[in-house]
Amino acid sequence: SSGINAEYGVTGVEDKLQPDVRTTLELLANAGIKVWMLTGDKLETATNIAISSRLVSRMTPIYTFKPVKTRTEAHNELNNFRKHNENALVILGDSLMTCLEHYEQEFVELAMMSPAVVVCRCSPTQKAAIVELIKKHGGSKPVAAIGDGGNDVSMIQAADAGIGIVGKEGKQASLAADFSISQFSHVGRLLLWHGRSSYKRCASLSQFIIHRGLIISVMQAIFSAVFFFVSISLFQGVLLIGYSSFFTMGPVFLLVLDQDVDAKIAMTYPELYKELQKGRVLSFKTFFIWILISIYQGTAIMYLGILLFKEDFIHVLAITFTVLIVTELLMVVITVRTWHWAMAVAQIFSLGCYFLTIIFLPEYFDPVFLTSKDFLIKFVALTAASCLPLFIMKYLRKRFAPPIYAKLQQSG
User: Fold this and answer.
1) For a Cys staple, 305 with which of 13, 132, 320, 333, CB 3.0–4.6 Å?
2) How far apart are CA 339 and CA 175, in angstroms?
3) Can you give the pLDDT of all 412 residues of the chain as single tens digits?
């Protein structure tokens, strides 16, 4: 021999899964969230990770999409995959781009039906293109992208919601993202608790603000119609400013702290998140229900106020405005699902501000009249006409058709 010694070295790098990855993926699946894994790893590694993380269950067969480069090859392979669309799909990034170039609609339809999709050997540009593809064909459903490295930045920025994980690969992903977390397991709480609560709170607040503005507009319209469309404001400057600020702002905006279930229940029952996908919390139906409530209450307060006080019309402003404020506060009581000290304080503060207004603004209110028996009787009658039907409807719904969160609260 030549006397030259050849030495060979082999290096093994252990890339462990983060804690609770399997549990988190199971939570997301039970919540109705479909997960695609986009990775730069080679096909065998990506397949093993998908199985070990339980993205693909051991009982789910895997269809490995053969490498394709031409339109004919893509067509044949898509036909083969169509026969196995109940399988999890594993595909190379270049093959996916070839399919999208010639058969974008067909591929997306098949991939959406698959229980899981793994795209391997995927470049940063391809990751962003896939996110854009899902946004394009996913209808109105938002797309979230989760990554921990610099090669995930373009994907995170392309998504509706970008989630960056601060990890060993640096902070590029977390700095480019909308939300930053320290490990993947926090995604479950971010979506199932914070995301769900934020959605429901924003829905309640936005619809309630529409109600608050519309009810006073209905009252003004009725007042103008009754008096031959005279251009006179029903409530003058200070009262209008107080209505939208001191008298109602606190309780209304504290709806952002409302919650139907606590974090433990939300994480234990991910199906609660799945309910949001039906769009029943914020939809055209709920919007028109609030519109009808506003029209009914504004009409009831204004017409009954005029009828009950037609002999003392000078007091119509006082009675209708008083009932309007109390109605808004009672509507918060009907809407809120969990009481807390801040809401109670805000309700008391709002009523206190109104009573101070009565005392210090005698040009708008007659304190003697407001403390009379006649006023109190008619005030109770008007308030009951405005709010009692809604209290009854809420009770009947809770009694005979309770929402899922109410059933969980009772069982807990």
Assistant:
1) 320
2) 37
3) 444 455 565 555 556 777 788 889 989 988 888 899 998 888 888 888 888 888 888 788 899 999 988 999 899 999 998 888 788 999 998 999 999 888 888 898 888 888 889 999 888 899 999 999 898 887 778 899 999 888 889 999 999 999 999 877 778 888 889 999 988 889 999 999 999 999 999 998 999 999 999 999 999 898 888 877 777 777 877 888 888 888 888 898 998 888 888 888 888 888 888 888 877 888 888 999 999 999 999 999 998 888 877 666 667 888 888 899 999 999 999 988 888 899 999 999 999 988 888 888 777 777 777 788 888 888 899 999 999 999 999 888 888 877 777 676 666 5
